[in-house]
Predict the structure.
Amino acid sequence: MSNLTENQKPMRNELQAGRVRSAWIFLSPMIVVLLIVAAWPLSRSVWFSLTDASLLHLYDAKFIGFKNYFKVLHTDSGETLYFGVLMDKAWWNAVWNTLRFGVVSVVLETCLGMAVALVLNANFKGRGFVRAAILIPWAIPTVVSAKMWGWMLNDQLGIVNDMLIKLGIIHEKIAWVADANYSMIAVVGVDTWKTVPFMALLILAGLQMVPGDVYEAAEIDGVHPVKVFFKVTLPLVLPALMVAVIFRMMDALRIFDLVYILTPNSSQTKTMSVIARENLFDFDKFAYGSAESTLLFLFLLVVVTLYIKIGRVNLDGGVQ
Amino acid sequence: MIPAWIKNTAFYAFVVIIVLQAVFPFYYAIVTSFKTGAEIFEISYYPRTFHLDNYYNVLFSGNGSFLRNIWNSVWVSSITVIVALFIAVTASYALSRVRFRGRSLMLMTILCVSMFPQVAVLAGLFEVVRALGLYNTDWSLIFSYTIFTLPFTVWVLTTFMRDLPIELEEAAIVDGATPWVIVSKIFMPLMWPALVTTGLLAFIAAWNEYLYALTFTASNDAARTVPVGIALLSGNSEHEIPWGPIMAASVIVTVPLIALVLIFQRKIIAGLTAGGVKG
């Protein structure tokens, strides 16, 4: 017996070594491509942020250190002036916009997604139809939904104002998109409309893994449904929920297209991605825009790391 | 206690609201797209007239540039997906089936790349695209879209492959099959449903992409994709927004997507929940 296992061992190791070798061969195309399309451009973006590059002078850009981020200038008249992204009011406004958009929309989407998921998890006639219907907002391209809602939210011709006036909720037509007081509400609303289906389906998948007899037992014991939700359902779907929330959060904090098309040039909604792209290509402040995009990257990195550490999220979904 | 009939009515009322809010905006886009001339200034909740002028305008005026945009979108999205799937199949086999050092690190890296803010690589990508002479061509998009389609497809295919029974592979290993034979002869035939799902989701993501398309192709009419085409649709004067044609264009590019999504509903939901990534 012992002889046999001794013979098997080296063979096994050899087999395993061969498999590992071919695994790396199998992985190499992906690694090479990701190095070219992700790692290299990212490092170049960071590099540009440390130079005085402009659209026409990409290659003869000079290293200027952190001056795009922070620069102090003493004028002849004895004044001290501060420049750079970190001293830029427009940038901090964009940070604030991104944060409030991200937090409000993700909270809304999670709550509404949970509500829709609970409905879809119940047994009722036409459930398949409802599930199909809620996929429609998800399937519509963001640019199209921005245009569609831009039309519906139009102040004079929009159907949303017409409905709200007919229902007696508002008395005067509101310029949802153009009015600085409402534009952020419009952006959050459209994003929520588009993303609740995604959240609902992710949460639903978690809900369906809760065994039915848990509910039966709770019903027999006469536990109130609300209590069942908070004591049984929520803890069981929490891991799935945590993963869904982080994906959504990352998506919300880098939002570009919806804001850019629905509310162009509104300082009330301009996010970090929008302002970075504007500086990169519209205002010909390539290096400055690179600094902003680098800061956005670092910011998201911090958010995701904190979230995973604090929430103890198991992102790899149980890969052995 | 609340009577059962009230509970039921409230429940179904909620269901009706869910369906209405999901469907209404697109329905209203269709209603608008059939209007012509001054009709657009009257708000109507159901179609009263049925004109195809807007569709005709979008498709055939302006030298058919919108048709060209549609073709660009189909071409760019298809090639991107095919390239991504091709690279992802072998990579996800290695990630799901072979134990090796650095595997979880690799998986985490892939996940991080898929959550990347796209604007963070924009400056660097712009340089690469220009250096390769791809600026204002469709290849600039095929190249740059790989940054989100590849991590996504690898991630979803890895979760799919993980669930295939180990016995399949063991039998093949005993018979002396090489890893390449295992992937191509044993896993590929079983992977078709997963490949279709993943491909579809990646296709939708590429079809909808706006930031790179705007940056790399906006100044060339012939290379634009649909999202840029719609965003740049303009009227006769600067202040007049051509809502009719915009809605017609929106309907044209959305109907095929909705059809695909409804046909592959179950697969798409499975793929979404496996990947956890928004398409």
Notes: The mean pLDDT of chain B is 88. Chain B touches chain A through 98 residues (CB under 8 Å).
